[in-house]
Design goal:
CATH architecture of chain B: 3-Layer(aba) Sandwich
Number of strands of chain B: 5
Number of strands of chain A: 22
Distance between the termini of chain B: 10 Å
Radius of gyration of chain B: 14 Å
Shape of chain A: elongated
Largest sheet of chain A: 7 strands, mixed
Radius of gyration of chain A: 54 Å
Strand content of chain A: 15-25%
Distance between the termini of chain A: 175 Å
CATH topology of the largest domain in chain A: Heat Shock Protein 90
Oligomer: heterodimer
Chain lengths: ~800, ~140
């Protein structure tokens, strides 16, 4: 071997050693690098795992890595997702577009999609993706952020926004938001509606331009700047069309997050209607006042008309006595019926205005129904005979003879209906039928039918006949004259009495009017029946003072009075002052006093007579042409005992005088006495009418004639007596003899004060109860007490009525 | 003679009778008096510290309340509180036994409730007041 060869080998050896060394170095390097790589991957894995966002790495759509957050998010364990396709983490509906996004692998871009929870619940997520190399392979990493809470917040915000938006949009009050300069930034539809602008016009417009009055605007602005907010500020604003509207405004400053002032916001409410309502109320008051004035006018007018009417009617009644030639009597009959007709018209108008004014007050008195029906028939007797009609009064047996209610108003209703029937019937008959419609323990309803065979009423007119100013006949038919108020009044009167009115009619065949009215049942009739008499009372021996300024009426009244007996002395004064002077010197049984007179009127005179002359018991009968209820009340308040309307019906005057003086003829000639308030028992003992069960002598004697106390006593007894009788019945039924005895004992006091003749009966009840003997008789005894007391109650009521007049 | 006001208490379970008696007494008695009315004896007892001079007492007082004390019981209680108060008894129970019983229990007098009761009450009240005046005059 050559040295060259040796050196060459040596060289090669060295090279090999060097290469080996190099290889070893490289190996170390590789190992180091490999270690580093593993380290780095591990760290990366750690990083992924620790991430607050979901991390998924996949290769060829197969998941190779998921972090814990992802598992938490979707409800899977890591091994459940490993090596699964990424499809299953996305919601099926969103899968396709999500995959499309992932294919492009655009770094830095985001995509919102829906992921799928293990429970199939959708989770809104934001994903980002990026290509990476994973263990040497080409992979993709997806970062998933949960948007649930963000979405929920957004939803809440949206709902809240919607809520306020709704309030804003739906509010009936106008709402506006303006800038600090006052430019309108937003207004709600109510505001647009209120001002009549559309949004384009209003947007950016300065709110200051909406004020109607610059001074009010500046004042408002000043206040808001000073106070920061102003509530319920009344201000006038102007609409687009220039109309000024009354509004109330509440405005406050609008501030930003740092409390800096951004502008204004406010609510405006249109109160024009409210203002108008106030105006209406005012107008209503004015109208009511004018209604009052009208009422006053009507009352005055009626007075003016009634005074001469009084004379006319009175004189015709008087003439009746002197005329005997048939011709004369015929003319007189003409005057009579014409004046009655005129009076009916006046009364119609008056009644109507009274009803309309709510001033009509219904009486509650016991009256003889059959008597009333006869009077109605009598009224039309001649007319019916003239027209050769027949009149049939048909009262069912079940209809009681006496009922409690307003007789005058029933008569008015029937007169109107029968009058119409007579007026519109040329041949055939008129039938007045009365039936018991229904009844309970205390009340009954009567049905009155007025049937005729007259011209009838066309169907289309039937609904209107009860209206004001409606006339059944054609206007050209002069014979059928009237105010056109008759049926309207009738209907109102019926309704006021809790009744109904209806009509059935066939044109050419006739009409049938049916009225139902509710009445109270009348108690025992004997006593009342006596008082409802048709004949005139004998007033012989009375001394009467007539106070009346109208000479004609003086004559009428004087002559009418004179006819009612012998030795009736009548003194006439023409005003209240004369009357007072006369009464100072002379005594009278009764004063008939006109209300409206010169110098001193009737009211004033009466007060003077009652107070200054101290003639508290002197009966004073007001004679008034004022027929409103208020006027009648005034006469009673002034101290008059009763009143009669002019023109008066002679019979009514006779009855009123009679009941005021309660004539009692003593054995000594024809001297008269009247039953007033009694101080002295001796004077009164014999005066009490025998058909009464009560006798208040003892009571009045005990109270010394103190009317107020008498009223109180009667009021107490009116309340106690029925209660105590009912209690007695209860105790009797329960056989509570001890209490019954005690109550019977107590009841004696009422019996004493009422002067009832049943003291013995009560003593027996008490005795039987105490001894519990003969208790079977107690029921009858209580029945007796009950019967007497029933009558007593009626008498107490009328006595109270009498006392009330003295108060 | 003193002209002081005499206090009179009226006790009756019937309000009507109370009102009537009060009115009657007030108008008829010529002495200065003040009258109080009671529907229950118990209420009258409550006011005994006002030293009424005379109490007019009904025998039966149970019309309003069943358990009310009767007049006789009230009388004894009045007398035990204030022996100087005179008690006049009234009753619809017109028998002599009741009258005797009430007088024995210390009543000033007894009035049967009949038509003359008020007049009798007037006489008795006048008499009782006169006696009291006389007694007071002697004391001074």
């Amino acid at each position: 071997m050559s040295s060259k060869e040796v050196s060459e080998i040596e060289k090669l050896k060295q090279e090999i050693a060097a290469l080996k060394e190099q290889q070893a170095m490289q190996q170390v390097q590789i190992e180091t690098l490999e270690n580093e790589l593993v380290e780095s991957e591990y760290r990366l894995d750690q990083l992924y795992q620790a991430s607050f966002e979901g991390v998924v790495i996949y290769v060829d759509e197969l998941i190779v890595l998921v972090n814990e957050r992802t598992c938490e998010l979707f409800g899977f364990a890591q091994h459940e997702l490993y090596r699964q396709t990424i499809h299953q983490i996305f919601a099926p509906h969103y899968l396709q577009e999500t995959l499309l996004f992932l294919e492009k692998k655009p770094s830095h871009s985001r995509f919102e999609t829906m992921c799928l929870h293990r429970t199939r619940e959708l989770i809104p997520c934001l994903i980002r993706c990026k290509p990476i190399s994973h263990k040497g392979e080409e992979a993709t990493v997806i970062m998933i952020s949960d948007l649930s809470s963000v979405r929920a917040n957004e939803q809440r915000l949206l709902q809240s926004e919607l809520l306020y938006r709704n309030l804003f949009e739906q509010s009936r009050d106008a709402i506006y938001i303006s800038s600090i300069r006052g430019d309108l930034l937003e207004v709600n539809p109510a505001a647009l509606k209120l001002f009549g602008y559309n949004w384009e016009e209003l947007q950016g417009m300065n709110a200051m331009r909406l004020y109607a009055n610059p001074a009010a605007r500046d004042a408002f602005r000043k206040r808001i700047e000073q106070q920061g907010e102003v509530y319920d500020y009344e201000v006038q604003l102007r609409k687009k069309d220039g109309t000024v509207i009354d509004c109330v405004m509440s405005t406050s400053l609008r501030r930003g997050a740092n409390m800096e002032i951004l502008g204004y916001q406010g609510i405006i409410r249109d109160i024009t209607h409210r203002k108008r309502e106030q105006d209406l109320i005012l107008a209503k008051e004015v109208a009511e006042h004018s209604a009052l004035v009208r009422e006053q006018f009507l009352a005055n007018m009626s007075h003016e008309i009634r005074t001469p009417m009084n004379a006319v009617i009175g004189m015709t009644h008087l003439l009746d006595f002197y005329l005997d030639k048939p011709e004369q009597r015929k003319y007189l009959q003409g005057i009579k019926s014409a004046s009655s007709h005129l009076l009916v018209i006046i009364n119609d108008i008056l009644d109507f205005s009274k009803i309309e004014a709510g001033q009509l007050i219904l009486e509650q008195e016991t009256f003889d129904l059959s008597q009333l029906l006869k009077e109605v028939e009598d009224t039309f007797r001649f007319e019916i005979a003239d027209k050769h009609l027949s009149f049939i009064l048909d009262i069912a047996e079940s209809v009681p003879a006496y009922i409690v209610g307003d007789a005058a108003r029933l008569k008015q209703i029937l007169l109107n209906l029968v009058g119409n029937a007579v007026k519109f019937t040329q041949r055939g008959s008129i039938k007045l039928k009365v039936r018991l419609f229904e009844e309970d323990a205390k009340h009954l309803k009567l049905a009155f039918n007025v049937e005729d065979t007259g011209i009838g009423i066309a169907k289309e007119k039937q609904t209107h006949i009860f209206d004001v100013f409606s006339q059944v006949g054609e206007t050209s038919n002069l014979r059928k004259s009237g105010t056109g108020l008759g049926l309207a009044i009738t209907r109102r009167l019926v309704e006021l009495q809790g009744g109904t009115i209806s009509v059935q009619s066939e044109l050419g065949l006739g009409s049938n009017f049916m009225v139902t009215i509710r009445y109270s049942k009348a108690v025992e009739q004997s006593a009342v029946a006596a008082s409802v008499q048709d004949e005139l009372h004998d007033l012989s021996g009375l001394t009467i003072l007539l106070v009346e300024d109208n000479e004609l009426n003086q004559v009428v009244t004087h002559d009418t009075l004179q006819k009612w007996g012998s030795d009736i002395r009548i003194f006439i004064c023409s005003n209240g002052q004369d009357a007072v002077h006369t009464l100072e010197k002379h005594s009278f049984d009764l004063v008939i006093m006109d209300v409206q007179m010169p110098i001193m009127d009737g009211l004033e005179a009466t007060k003077f007579i009652r107070k200054q002359l101290n003639l508290k018991d002197l009966p004073i009968l007001a004679m008034t042409a004022y027929v409103t209820t208020g006027e009648a009340e005034k006469t009673i308040q002034a101290g008059m005992n009763d009143y009669i309307c002019k023109p008066f019906e002679p019979k009514t005057l006779n009855h009123k005088i009679f009941s005021l003086v309660k004539l009692k003829k003593t054995e000594k000639g024809e001297k008269l006495d009247y039953f007033g308030t009694v101080f002295d028992a001796n004077k009164v003992e014999h005066v009490c009418p025998s058909d009464k069960v009560t006798n208040f002598t003892f009571l009045y004697n005990a109270t010394g004639g103190d009317t107020e106390l008498n009223m109180k006593m009667l009021t107490i007894m009116l309340r106690e007596v029925p209660d105590e009788i009912a209690q007695m019945e209860t105790y009797y039924r329960e056989q509570n003899w001890k209490r019954l005895a005690s109550l019977a004992h107590k009841f004696k006091s009422a019996v004493t004060y009422l002067g009832l003749d049943i003291k013995e009966v009560l003593i027996q009840i008490q005795q039987f109860s105490e001894e519990q003997a003969e208790t079977d008789k107690i029921g009858d005894l209580i029945g007796t007490v009950q019967m007497v007391c029933k009558q007593a109650i009626v008498e107490i009521e009328s006595e109270m009525e009498r006392l009330r007049l003295q108060l | 003679m003193s002209d002081r006001t005499y206090r009179i208490f009226l006790v009756d379970d019937d309000i009507k009778t109370l009102l009537i008696m009060k009115k009657y007494i007030e108008t008829r008695i010529k002495f200065p008096i003040s009258v109080n009315i009671f529907a229950y004896g118990e209420n009258c007892l409550d006011r005994m510290d006002e030293n009424p001079d005379i109490v007019v007492l009904d025998y039966f007082l149970d019309a309003i309340r069943e358990d009310a004390k009767n007049g006789l019981e009230i009388l004894r209680l009045i007398k035990s509180v204030n022996p100087d108060t005179e008690v006049i008894f009234m009753s619809g129970q017109g028998d002599v036994e009741t009258a005797i019983e009430t007088i024995r229990s210390g009543a000033y007098d007894y009035i049967p409730k009949n038509e003359n009761a008020l007049q009798r009450l007037e006489i008795l009240l006048n008499k009782a007041i006169l006696e009291q005046q006389k007694m007071e005059a002697e004391t001074f």
